[in-house]
Amino acid sequence: KEKISREVECEDRPERAEPLSDTEREIVQDTWGHVYKNCEDVGVSVLIRFFVNFPSAKQYFSQFQHLEDPEEMARSSQLRQHACRVMNAINSVVENLHDPEKVSSVLALVGKAHAIKHKVEPVYFKILSSVMLEVFSEDFPEFFTAEVQMVWTKLMGAVYWHVTGAYTEVGWLQVSSSAV
Fold first, then answer.
1. What angle do CA 66, 4, 64 make, to 5 degrees?
2. Is 0.85 surpassed by the pTM of this model?
3. Is residue 81 part of a domain?
4. Does the keyword Aminoacyl-tRNA synthetase apply (predicted)?
5. CATH number at residue 105
């Protein structure tokens, strides 16, 4: 049974996201090139695994929340569109790693939309990040070595930091409970 904590720990939040070094930025950009060539298929694989392993995440998607079967999910045009949006957002981050202001503004928009419009619990971003890394590592094992995975984990930590910052900014209530 799936258990998800619904808290954004303000006091545990570092003051800033740890920046990537130049070498780490290059590693991310090089490996992302391989992933992004197959953007839609990889994105769909990520979302299917996310929804199969964390079915409560489907509650935010009226268009495909009723789908149980991974093959049905793969055929959903709405799921495919959302997969592309997710991958394009990551692409904007990766393309702009040299420009922290741009990265910050891209992720602030994503965070605010999910907090205000979609009312998505922020912990799902953390879960989605780890599902992405799993899928990238399995689909591209020759590029996602242990070192590369560590760099991507650092990047995803920064993404989560920026997104949760946007949640805090819009006054997201810290509710302590768990989803079933």
1. 15
2. yes
3. yes
4. no
5. 1.10.490.10
Give the tokens for residue 109. Answer: 């928009």
Provide the residue range defining the domain that includes 36.
22-170
Query: Which of the 8 DSSP states describes residue 20?
Result: P
- Of 48, 8, 55, 51, which Cα lies nearest the Cα of 180? 55
Residue 12 lies inside a defined structural domain of this protein: no
DSSP 3-state of 9: coil
Question: Is residue 75 one of the residues assigned to a domain?
Answer: yes
Write out the chain's pLDDT in tens, 180 residues. Answer: 455 554 444 446 677 778 899 999 999 999 999 999 999 999 999 999 999 999 999 999 999 899 999 999 999 999 999 999 999 999 999 999 999 999 999 999 999 999 999 999 999 999 999 999 999 999 999 999 999 999 999 999 999 999 999 999 999 865 444 444
Tally of domains in the chain: 1
Examine residue 157 and state whether it is found in any structural domain, yes or no: yes
Cα→Cα distances 111→27, 59, 86, 132, 175, Å: 25, 18, 12, 18, 17
Q: Which residues contact 81 (CB under 8 A, 6 or more apart)?
A: none
